[in-house]
Amino acid sequence: MTLGIDIGGTNLVFGLVENGRIRRKFSVPSFKKEATMEQTLEYLSEQISSIITRDTTKIGVGVPTLVDAHTGVVYDAGNIPSWKVVPLKAYLEERFGVPVSVGNDANCFAMAAYGAYPEDAKPEVLVGITLGTGTGLGIVDRGRLFCGANSGAGELCSLPYRGTMIEDYCSKKFFEGRGWDSKAAAMAAIGGDTAARALFDEFGMHLGELVCNVLYAYDPSHIAFGGGIAHSLDLFRPSMEAYVREHFPYSISVDHLTIAAFADDDFPVIGASLI
Questions:
Q1: Same domain for 164 and 62?
Q2: Contact 180, 141 (CB under 8 A)
């Protein structure tokens, strides 16, 4: 039994995973912005204590930032102000006495998405893109997670874009900047609201720019979208794909690309249990 933990900017999600399936799960609000590192670690430990069992042999944690995959040290988590340098693996191993693995949350999602494909149809190169409070990327190359030399591979969402960075146009921040909640916008668009539909058309265009960058960098066979906004793939897919076909010069890469949404809330936790 593995305890998978997804540390997000909005919620912390905990799940006991056995044979790739969640046996028990719960979520709590994420850390308060003003909390110190010590307070966040104590809060995290309290939640772990409420779910961990004697049968738990490992803890896997996904975090929304750079991680040293060997030492389990977390660096500069933008949505957790006090997390500049956090020895998370060492802290949790000492506290709970079981092995701990720590990885970037988008890497965890990418591993879970890869695992969702049947054995005879595994992607050659899969890029997982999480669309939530922020935007993250994870790369699985022929079954192996590609993290780069410093576990920073896939941080394309920090690329400069329109005076800021592309993440601001490919996450909940885009909707908030226009006075919408992403879920409310999706419901309105499904109901036929023209302003909401136009909003998703614009969102798809910006996401198309990110997809072009992904194609240039990794030439994936598959792109898997996760996170809350992935539920709305049908709303932004037409404008996203139109943008990619217009702006990406190599049609063979686009023709051979498979795009799907894996919006099941269990995916980040299952992915954390796999790292």
A1: no
A2: no
Q: How far apart are CA 219 and CA 93, in angstroms?
A: 38
Neighbours of 202 (CB within 10 A): 15
Residues 127 and 65 in one domain: no
- Residue 58 burial by Cβ neighbours in a 10 Å radius (0-12, 13-18, 19+): middle
Answer whether residue 113 is part of any domain: no
Element containing residue 110 per DSSP (H, E):
helix 105-116
Query: Collapsing DSSP states into helix, strand and coil, what is residue 147?
Result: coil
Three-class SS of residue 8?
coil
Residues 137 and 91 in one domain: no
| C-alpha–C-alpha distance, residues 99 and 117, integer Å | 28
Domain count, the chain: 2
For residue 15, give both structure tokens: 């799940």
Tokens of 43: 């809060």
> Do 203 and 174 meet the contact criterion of CB atoms below 8 Å apart?
yes
112 in a structural domain: no
Token couple for 28: 């709590």
Say which amino acid occupies 253. S
Whether residue 19 contacts residue 274, with contact meaning beta carbons closer than 8 Å, is answered with no
Mean pLDDT of 227-243: 96
Give residue 237's domain range: 119-261
- pTM as predicted: 0.88
- 224 and 100 assigned to the same domain: no
Interval 96-150: pLDDT, tens: 999 999 999 899 999 999 999 999 999 999 999 999 888 999 999 999 999 887 7
CATH number at residue 240: 3.30.420.40
